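[audit] Reproducing an earlier prediction to check determinism. Same input, same settings, fresh worker. If the tokens differ from the archived copy the diff job will pick it up downstream; this log only records the rerun itself.
[audit] input (158 residues):
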Amino acid sequence: MAKAQGAKAQGRSDRNVRDIMVKEVVTIEPSASLTDAARAMEDANIGMLPVVQDGKVLGVITDRDIVVRAVAREADPASTAVGDCLSINAIVAHPDWTPERAMQTMAQAQVGRLPVLDDEDRLVGVVTLSSMAFRAPEKGEALEAAQEVSRRSAKRSA
């Protein structure tokens, strides 16, 4: 009992990714065009869409994927399918993970958002650095994860 009270006194809680993830997720199908993806991102003010087909997450498409894999190669965004530019093998989180585990995963993968999959690999949400910063009890840890993502990205581009 003293251990639990000590953890609470330090600002920790029993929260998990389920408690802090964004539950209403905008998704896109692999057959949609990159223009459709960009418009969906603009409308929802987001930078990543899980690519879903028949209820299964195939990967993700990010605003960076659109720029680097399509625009930089002069592909026509109106006729290029999302499936041609998506990032496969997406790094994901699970609802029962601790926020700390999700933040460590983001920092290691150098990403700011993770699709959240349940035990049957169904998409149930997305956890982002922003959702952690606003909803997680340990605000400093979200900042540390964001700094680590930025630090590793800076090293890659140097």
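[audit] rerun output stored. Observation attached for the diff report: Residues 39 and 130 are 21 Å apart (CA to CA).
[audit] end
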